[in-house]
Specification:
The chain is of the alpha+beta class and about 250 residues long. The protein contains nine helices and six strands; from the N terminus they run E-E-H-H-H-H-H-E-H-H-E-H-E-E-H. The chain folds into three domains: about 1-60, no CATH class; about 95-105 and about 210-240, no CATH class; about 110-205, Chitinase A, domain 3. Strand 5 and strand 6 form a beta hairpin.
């Protein structure tokens, strides 16, 4: 284990372990900013923190009312956390329950049909027919898209990426989802103009396999069981320690 000593402050070593503890003790945003400054920035901050600690001890601040009050608050907070964790930590969802949930709630694990398509968008039907003619004669789809398409996707050869139903205008969607992979459509008119569509990939709707969702189901069931256990134990505590409200 690397526990390199970077510095000493009043005889106290600043090591790699010190830096790790420093990062873990900080709010994530501040820790990230500090790490961006590199190792030197971390070491400098660790030195600063140790200087404050040494000075606090020298002033015997641990005997101050402020310190004592803060320690009591932290002790209560820690003890509450340990108590709650003792109720929840051993609660699990066994595989039989997970599998039963998967079998009984199959509709939750259905993926939607999704396709990947490219298109060439032009302003007129005549221009669209000319594009189709050029494609039928063997010209490259991406090259023509970059040359004549009025859609920003022309920069990617007309590639629109993956999308499901409901994400495109109806005329475009109906045409694209009815095609076979590598098909090139006739001109399709929409509110944007005339499209020549090429279907690149198609992913049929399917039910996710059990192994694909097992961990997700297990976590969800564990959360439900933990919430139930938390509520049940809380009711027991209310019966044990009477609660009075004004």
């Amino acid at each position: 284990m690397n526990n390199k000593v970077y510095a000493k402050v009043g005889g106290v070593e600043i090591t790699q372990e010190t830096l790790n503890e420093l990062i873990q003790s900080m709010p994530p945003q501040y820790a990230q900013q500090l790490q961006m400054g590199g190792e030197e920035a971390l070491v400098e901050e660790a030195i600063n923190q140790e200087l404050f600690l040494l000075d606090a001890k020298a002033q015997k601040l641990e005997e101050s009312p402020l310190y004592q009050a803060e320690m009591k608050r932290l002790q209560k907070q820690l003890l509450r956390g340990v108590a709650i964790n003792s109720v929840l930590e051993n609660i699990t969802a066994d595989e039989a329950d997970v599998k039963a949930y998967y079998d009984d709630h199959g509709h939750e694990f259905l993926t939607q049909e999704e396709i990947s398509a490219s298109h060439i968008l032009v302003d007129t039907e005549e221009a669209a027919k000319d594009v189709k003619r050029r494609l039928d004669e063997g010209e490259d789809f991406s090259a023509i898209a970059r040359e004549v398409s009025t859609c920003p996707s022309k920069e990617n050869g007309g590639n629109l990426g993956h999308f499901g139903r409901g994400q495109m205008v109806p005329e475009f969607e109906d045409a694209a989802f009815s095609m076979k992979v590598d098909d090139i459509s006739e001109p399709v008119q929409t509110q944007f103009g005339y499209h020549i569509i090429k279907l690149d990939h198609k992913h049929e709707a399917r039910k996710l396999e059990f192994d694909e969702v097992k961990e997700q189901i297990e976590q969800n069931l564990r959360n439900v069981k933990q919430q139930d256990a938390y509520t049940e134990y809380l009711e027991q505590l209310k019966a044990k320690y009477p609660v009075e409200r004004d």
